[in-house]
Amino acid sequence: MTLHLLKCRPKPLVISATQSSEPKPVFTFISTHHVDGSRLGVDGTRCSARSDQRYVSPASELLYRWTVLTRNSILCCNCGAPIDGTVAAGALCYDCIKLTIDVSQGIQREGTLHQCRDCDRWLSPPNQWLVAQPESRELLALCLRKLRGLSKVRIIDASFIWTEPHSRRIKLKITIQQEAFQGTILQQTFEVEFVQANQQCPDCQKSFTHNTWRAVVQVRQKVTHKRTFLYLEQLILKHGAHRDAINIKEIHDGIDFFFSARNHAEKFVDFLSSVVPMKSKKSQELISMNIHTSEKTYKFAFSCEIVPICKDDLVALPIKLAKQIGNMFPLALCYRVGTAVNLLDPNTLQTAEVATPIYWRAPFTPIADIPQLVEFIVMDIEITGPTKGRFVLADCTVARAADLGVNDTTYFCRSHLGALLNPGDSVMGYLLAGTQFNNNEFEAIEQSKTYKSAIPDVILVKKHYPRRKKASGQKRNWKLKRMAKEESEMAPRKQDQERLERDFELFLRDVEEDEELRHTMQVYKAQQEANAMEMETDDEDEDEQGPQIPMDQLLDEFEEMNMQDAA
């Protein structure tokens, strides 16, 4: 029998401080061949040449024990246990290495994390504030960065240990490795505890202190209602454009947004210009100046004026401008307001777009808006054929709802609502016959020989649906989020408060009726109201109810800072 011995290259010995292990030899048996064709394995067992079945023979066992006992052995200098001298680390056995050497020595075991309880951000020294959720990767990285001495070892694993939330404690379980001796690596696991301390961030400090802002964005629109600002508020909430604002203040004809830095205000102005047609003007005021270094401190103000044209407004275009945008009829209806004003001629379905720069070169104002709408009853309707998107041209015969039973006055007109109206439906529109408008552009249209005869008696705007009454107790199964705003020093009068409530109700109706408008904002489920509506049985006809928003288009409610509910 011949014994072949292979000396292996020495490798670092990894010792775990939590588990015990026995020494492994630094050499390996390849095989020992027997005269009968069998071979001897590494563990001293003999394998048959024709089978993989192993068995241990007395001769093999004696050979293996002789090999282990005759190699170089020494005694541990601490406990006297025999160990292999070729792999001994400092003449210590594995147990003594784990007991006498602490690779986590010098690593901080306790620490303090500062959190702002107003905005829930964490302080990352020296002056950076981070947003991190509990037990998140960002919070774990912040905790590891705050531990002194951790950079000298190798981190194998790190995880959170559950603690009661009200205990204000954060515990980590960290596993590290470090070379204890040459060729010996020790792995150890330990715990670190952090205490949560409250510290207000500079942004929140400024929000609770008066006159600490550095930039203000003043958004204004010269109209008598708040429908544009209600829509703009939903766009701001959807895109989170108000996150950098330290205060939001609502005034009579607009909203003021206060920021702690000029770049935040400029970013907000850029967002406004991307969603509404507006123009802005920048001004600055000197606060202080250092005469030695010539350093100056300014306060910046951005004045943003939104185009005073809203959806469903009736406008009279300057005749020159009407010819420039496609030679359309100067009396048009505004059907959408985005980054530009989109106009529609109800008689021909011709559309045109007035860009913001073009509008401010030749500004015009609406001659009639939503409060001046009159309810009409459709007596007869006939589709004439031309269609354009969701608009269908039709000839309509209508009568004022207030004139039914009083006189037989009817009006003939053309409308773009051919796909929605049926005889007997209610429709809202502007009555031009016998109405005087104090508008220079409209007077120029009346004096024009080209357009005077084409002025219609009635312009229909939208279909009218019967609404739920407050006394019935019916509520919507959806709701919108509102920004937390600070009201001005002068509280609104009773009539102003009623006007605000009326404008908001009209805006909610537009959200229900206009699917295109609804897709640009976030509409949330009102869970309690939705469950109540499902349990109720309504005996009224479905046609008498207003439009409803499908439940699959509603989002689940969640909590967010600086937001409040609005039904």
Helix content: 10-25%
Oligomer: single chain
Class from secondary-structure proportions: alpha+beta
Indicate the radius of gyration in whole angstroms.
40 Å
What is the spatial order of strands in the main beta sheet?
Answer: 18-19-15-17-16-31
Termini separation (Å)? 93 Å
Report the average pLDDT across residues.
80
- Can you tell me the overall shape? elongated
Number of strands: 33
What does the largest sheet look like?
6 strands, mixed
Pfam family, one: NMD_SH3
Biased composition (Acidic residues): 535-545, 554-567
InterPro entries: Nmd3 (IPR039768), Nmd3_N (IPR007064), NMD_SH3 (IPR048899), OB_NMD3 (IPR048898)
Biased composition (Basic and acidic residues): 483-498
Mind explaining what this structure looks like?
The structure is a single chain. This protein is of the alpha+beta class. The chain folds into four domains: 2-99, no CATH class; 110-198, Roll (Nuclear Transport Factor 2, Chain: A), CATH 3.10.450; 314-464, no CATH class; 475-566, no CATH class. It contains twelve helices and 33 strands. A six-stranded mixed sheet has the order 18-19-15-17-16-31. A hairpin with a 2-residue loop joins strand 16 and strand 17. Belongs to the NMD3 family. This is 60S ribosomal export protein NMD3. Residues 309-355 form the 60S ribosomal export protein NMD3 SH3 domain.
